[in-house]
């Protein structure tokens, strides 16, 4: 009985030892398998990814300023009166679109009547002197007129021709019709200034213009530069412009002139930006917000923002080392300008960064 009980105990102990050994082996095999299944970056995977190279660029900073839209001075015409008179028909209003040669207003003028009389008289004199010249030439050939008579006839004809040409030029400048003097648009564009009404007395020596017409296919944006920003703004810097009327539309251009004078009233210096104005969306005197990309004078490593991974309030990049080795590198972003990030620490020029599927690689390598 005792021997049988002892044998059972020994068998049970042996079974437990064997089971423990088997369990230990199973755990070791699982650990080995887990170790073998750890994520690895292969050369084949790297060849399928986009790679960016860190460059050293001059760091750019953005300056936010204000400005107003103004007509292009080279495409703007002020119309002054050439004669005196009284207006009778004003055909356009402020803001109207006019075509080149379109009549803006008509005016009754005594001077125009005088110009017309001079033209008619000069044309009649030209016809008369021409007839006398032809007659004198015939008489000279027949021996009935002297050479002196012929020269005098030629001189009278030349004077009459010159006077007729002058009178015609005056009338071509001072356009008129049956109702009087016509004020015409010398260019096509918008009426941006109007100082004329019906039945208004106009003098030729008046210093005030009657109309101002501007072609708004291109416009200027006059930027206000405060004294603290004067040293940061230079000719050629690119700018982006937005307006209250079109907050989602960005107009681009470059600073083409910096005025080296400070406005004594506003205490600002002006810079000028010439930009295209498709559809004539920008109007004179519109308020504009101007973002200037200015050089800081400091060289820093620059990367595309697509290579950044943001996790736990920190920025990281994946750096490729060797053929098939990728490591996670924390970086400090000094500033961001559009799709470029300037890095103050963490990378150096020439480093190769993973620029596609970096989130997947980051999560896989982090674990």
TrEMBL record:
Which GO biological process categories is it annotated with?
A: copper ion export; plasma membrane copper ion transport
* Keyword terms of this UniProt record: Signal, Transport
Q: Which residues form the Multidrug resistance protein MdtA-like C-terminal permuted SH3 domain?
A: 307-357
Report whether Signal shows up as a keyword of the record: yes
Provide GO CC annotations from the record: cell envelope; membrane
Span of domain CusB-like beta-barrel: 218-295
Stated name of the protein: Cobalt-zinc-cadmium efflux system membrane fusion protein
Q: Establish whether keyword Nucleotidyltransferase is in the entry.
A: no
Taken from the record, one Pfam family name reads RND-MFP_C
The signal peptide here is: 1-22
Task: List the GO molecular function terms.
Answer: transmembrane transporter activity
- Identify the SUPFAM superfamilies for this entry: HlyD-like secretion proteins (SSF111369)
């Amino acid at each position: 009985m005792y021997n049988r009980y002892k044998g059972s105990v020994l068998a049970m102990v042996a079974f437990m030892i064997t089971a423990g050994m088997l369990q230990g082996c199973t755990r070791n095999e699982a650990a080995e398998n887990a170790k073998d299944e750890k994520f690895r970056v292969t050369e084949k995977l790297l060849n399928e990814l986009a790679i960016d190279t860190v460059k050293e660029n001059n760091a750019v900073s953005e300056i936010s300023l204000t400005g107003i839209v103004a007509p292009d001075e080279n495409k703007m015409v002020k119309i002054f009166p050439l004669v005196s008179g009284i207006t009778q028909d004003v055909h356009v209003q402020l803001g109207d679109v006019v075509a080149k040669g379109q009549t803006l207003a008509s005016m009754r003028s005594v001077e125009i009547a005088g110009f017309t009389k001079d033209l008619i008289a000069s044309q009649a004199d030209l016809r008369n002197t021409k007839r006398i010249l032809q007659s004198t030439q015939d008489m000279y050939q027949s021996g009935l007129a002297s050479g002196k008579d012929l020269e005098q006839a030629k001189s009278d004809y030349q004077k009459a021709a010159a006077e007729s040409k002058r009178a015609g030029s005056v009338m071509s400048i001072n356009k008129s019709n049956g109702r009087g003097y016509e004020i015409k648009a010398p260019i096509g564009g918008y009426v941006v200034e109007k100082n004329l009404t019906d039945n208004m007395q106009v003098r030729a020596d008046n210093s005030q213009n009657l109309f101002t017409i501007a072609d708004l296919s291109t416009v200027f944006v006059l930027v206000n530069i405060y004294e603290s920003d004067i040293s940061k703004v230079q000719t050629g810097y690119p700018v982006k412009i937005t307006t209250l009327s079109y907050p989602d539309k960005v107009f681009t251009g470059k600073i083409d002139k910096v005025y080296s004078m400070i406005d004594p009233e506003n205490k600002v210096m002006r810079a000028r930006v010439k930009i295209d104005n498709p559809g004539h969306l920008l109007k004179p005197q519109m308020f504009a917000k101007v973002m200037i990309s200015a050089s800081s004078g400091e060289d820093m490593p620059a990367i595309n923002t697509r290579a950044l991974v943001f996790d736990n309030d920190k920025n990281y990049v994946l750096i490729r080392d060797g053929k098939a080795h990728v490591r996670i590198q924390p970086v400090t972003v000094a500033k961001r300008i559009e799709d470029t990030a300037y890095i103050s620490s963490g990378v150096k020029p020439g480093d190769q960064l993973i620029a596609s599927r970096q989130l997947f690689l980051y999560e896989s390598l982090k674990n």
